[in-house]
Amino acid sequence: DAEQAARMSGQLKGVQEFVQQAIAGANSQAKSVLQEAKQAIDEHDYPVAKHLLERLHKQLWDELSSAERFQLLTRLGAVKLAESAVEDAAELFLRAKSLQPDDEKALTNEAFAYFLRGESARAHQLSGELRVRFPHSAQIVAIWVNSSAAEENSDELLSGMDAHLIADAEVAVALAGRFAQKGDTERAESLLRGAKRGNTEWSALPLMMGRAIVASEIKEAAKPGDRGQSNRKARLEEAEGFFSRAVELAKNERQIRS
C-alpha cells in the first residue's frame, strides 16, 4: 500500500508539474502575442493585430490573467475603432474597464466609449473627473473638450490648461475644432500651428490646418477694403500642401487597414 501510495503521489506530482508547465507556456505565449498585437497597432497594421487578438481570445481566454484580458479587449477595441466599428469598439472598452476598474487607461477608455456612443454629457462628466485625478493626460483633455456642450465658451475650455497639453496634437485638434465652429479661424490656426507632431503623423492635423487657412482667407476676403490679396496666393498654396499631406496620410491609413 505504501509503495502504491508513493507511485500515485509521484504520478500526481508529475501531473501537477505538467499543468504548471502548460500554464507557464500559455502565459508566455499570451504575453508574446499581446506584444506582437500592440506593435501591429502602433504600426497601423490592424488586420494583423485583429488576427492575433481574435486567435488569442479563442484559444487561451480562460488561461489569461485579468490584466491580460484587459489588454486583449482594449487592443481589440482599438482595432474595431480603426475599422470604424464604433459601437463594437465602445463595447470592448467598457468590458475591459470592468477588468481593471482603477487603471488610468481603462477609465480613459470608459469616458471615450461613452463619447463614441454619442453620450456626450456622460463622457464629459467622466473625463472632467479624470482630469482631476490624471491632470497630465492629453487624451483625457481631448475627450473632455470634444464632449463639451456646443454652447460652451471656447476660451473657458482653454482657460487654465497647461501649455504642454495645448501643444498635444489631439488636444490642439479638439480645441481648434471648437474655435472654428465659433468662427474664430485665427485662433484655430494658431493652435494647430503650435501642435507637436509626435512620432506618428495623423491625417486630421494637416486636414484641420488646411481648413483653418482657407476659412481665414475667406473671412479676410469678405472684409471691406481687403488688403491681404498679396499674401493670399502663398497662404492658399500652403493650405493646398496641407490638404495633399492629409490625403497622403489618409490613403496610407486606409491601405494598411484594408
Task: List its traits.
mainly alpha, 258 residues, single chain, 13 helices
Secondary structure elements and pairings:
Blueprint: H1 2-42, H2 46-60, H3 66-82, H4 86-97, H5 104-116, H6 120-133, H7 138-146, H8 154-158, H9 163-166, H10 169-181, H11 185-193, H12 204-221, H13 229-257
Helix pairs in contact: 1-2, 1-3, 2-3, 3-4, 4-5, 5-6, 5-7, 6-7, 7-10, 10-11, 10-12, 11-12, 12-13
Binned, the helix content reads over 70%
Q: N- to C-terminal separation?
A: 66 Å
Largest sheet, in brief, is: none
Q: Classify the beta-strand content into a percent band.
A: under 5%
Q: What best-fitting shape do the alpha-carbon axes yield?
A: elongated
Number of strands: 0
Unreliable parts: 15-24
Q: What is the tally of helical segments? A: 13
**Topology pattern, helix = H, strand = E:** HHHHHHHHHHHHH
Question: What is the overall pLDDT average?
Answer: 87
Structural class: mainly alpha
Radius of gyration: 25 Å
Outline:
The chain is mainly α and about 260 residues long. It has helices spanning about 1-40, 45-60, 65-80, 85-95, 105-115, 120-135, 140-145, 155-160, 165, 170-180, 185-195, 205-220, 230-255.
Structure description:
This protein is mainly alpha-helical. 77% of the residues lie in helices and 0% in strands. The chain has 13 helices and no strands. Helix 4 packs antiparallel against helix 5, helix 7 runs parallel beside helix 10 and helix 11 runs antiparallel to helix 12. The longest helix has 41 residues. The radius of gyration is 25 Å and the shape is elongated. It starts with a helix and ends with a helix. About 4% of the residues have low confidence.
